[in-house]
Specification:
Length: 242
């Protein structure tokens, strides 16, 4: 296993639950690295920070994709919250477990209590201050860990996709089309961290992603991506062994 690791934190824009997204594509572009993800559908920054703190990221690289500051991540500790979460009409399934315990990631919940939290308890100024303070603390932590790091955000990726030359390929899903995740990696992530992506591998990955007919939430999406990665590995090996 590679000693070079890149830790990727993010919400549903990084989770890969619809189709491959930027961390999964980053792995295809960097076969000599281990890409470690700490993501969740609708994740908020409290959960993402906790994920980071549970990682051994010293002397490694970290990409932190900040989510909206008013999201509510609940560490489930009693039956009251377990029942509330499981009965939620939207996010009844949305649990993630790490070393701290089981989290309910509630961002898209229609529950009145959650909506009240978003609309009343965390107003814009407090949300902005919360995000600023969290970023300062995480940055200090990463510096103390001697990490190479880059901060991005879901909003930044959205803006990138909307203004990209191929913005018509944004897709109708909440998350961008895989090709837009590819462009995000090569245009934003790679130069930010000066990652050693082989030019011929980059061309190969772009070609394979472009040639694939992507269907959101395809029940075979995991197997499809695994087969694509095997195809990429085989073709890339043929190129570098010539």
């Amino acid at each position: 296993m590679s000693t070079n690791k890149i830790f990727c934190l993010g919400d549903g824009y990084a989770h890969g639950h619809i189709w491959p997204e930027w961390p999964q594509i980053l792995q295809a572009l960097l076969p000599d690295y281990e890409i470690v993800t700490g993501t969740g559908i609708g994740a908020g920054n409290e959960f993402l920070i906790d994920q980071l703190l549970n990682f051994d990221c010293e002397n490694q690289s970290v990409i932190f994709q900040w989510a909206q500051a008013d999201r509510f991540d609940k560490l489930v500790q009693d039956s009251q919250w377990q029942i509330l979460a499981q009965n939620d009409p939207v996010y009844y399934f949305n649990f993630e477990t790490n070393l701290s315990g089981t989290w309910w990631l509630s961002s898209a919940s229609r529950d009145k209590k959650i909506q009240e939290y978003h609309d009343f308890f965390v107003q814009n100024r407090q949300a902005e201050l919360r995000l600023k303070n969290q970023q300062i603390l995480v940055e200090n932590y990463l510096q103390n860990q001697n990490c190479q790091y880059w901060f991005t955000s879901t909003q930044q990726q959205e803006s990138f996709c909307k203004t990209h030359r191929d913005s018509h390929r944004r897709s109708n899903e909440v998350q961008p089309h895989p090709i837009m995740h590819y462009y995000f990696v090569v245009d934003c992530v790679q130069p930010a961290l000066n990652l050693p992506i082989h030019p011929e591998l980059q061309v190969l990955v772009e070609k394979v992603i472009n040639q694939t007919a992507w269907t959101a939430y395809d029940p075979d999406r995991k197997e499809i991506w695994e087969n694509i990665c095997k195809e990429i590995d085989f073709k890339y090996s043929s190129i570098i062994n010539k």
